[in-house]
Write a structure and sequence with these properties.
five-stranded mixed beta barrel, mainly beta, OB fold (Dihydrolipoamide Acetyltransferase, E2P)
């Protein structure tokens, strides 16, 4: 009821990692994202870095599959999800706090690059666990998933670049409006030019010279 849902815009800080929840055996894809505020320094006339935010992001089921096959370190991303803090104690028995986010939607930031979307094929059973995984609290004891047991890896499920290279449409040029010529205008102009050309040289009106005043 009082969940904090928000959007984080930043860059992928660590490669997505498959982990298995020890108590349930559920699979989840985790990675870290870093977001840095930018502000304009008027005194120095340049942009400078502001506050930093680093969040551990968890993705479940089909979203986890898309994350594992699509995201790499450094990718600009836009993430929408539920933000919360997790309190824990380290090996020295000191209290710690970490920021975590359960993602609902993740996509690339297209203001900083281009991407192409490939729709998932319909499947009866997803590689990641069912809806009961939602009840698992993020941050519970988990263990890394061996490479041979990973449901999907980076780049899997995407067409090869050599087989289907992406194409991007360029914007159409702005049409230039040409003023319409009234019907019969061209014929009238040609007729006037023909009549002028047929007149004798002496019959053509010459420009009068300006008369100078005569001294009395």
């Amino acid at each position: 009821m009082f969940d904090t849902n928000l959007v984080v815009v930043g860059n992928v800080l660590t490669a997505p990692e498959w982990r298995r929840i020890a108590s349930t055996g559920s699979l989840v894809a985790n990675f870290r994202v870093a977001s840095t505020a930018r502000r304009f320094d008027r005194e120095n006339n340049r942009w400078v870095d502001g506050n930093h935010l680093r969040v551990r992001v968890s993705a479940w089921r089909r979203l986890a599959e898309g994350v594992a096959s699509s995201l790499a370190v450094g990718d600009p991303v836009v993430i929408y999800g539920r933000l919360f803090t997790r309190d824990w104690t380290d090996e020295d028995n000191k209290p710690r706090v970490s920021y975590e986010m359960e993602a609902m939607s993740i996509g690339h930031d297209l203001s900083r690059g281009r991407a192409r979307f490939f729709r998932n094929k319909a499947a009866q059973v997803a590689a990641v666990e069912d809806a009961e995984s939602e009840a698992v609290v993020t941050g519970e004891l988990s263990e890394p998933v061996p490479a041979e047991e990973m449901p999907i890896g980076f780049g899997e499920g995407l067409p090869l670049a050599a087989e289907e290279p992406p194409t991007f449409a360029e914007p159409d040029p702005v049409p230039v409006e040409v003023p319409a010529v009234p019907e019969g205008e061209d014929e009238l102009t040609l007729e006037v030019e023909r009549l002028v050309a047929e007149q004798p040289a002496g019959a053509r009106r010459t420009r009068r010279t300006k008369r100078e005043p005569v001294a009395a």
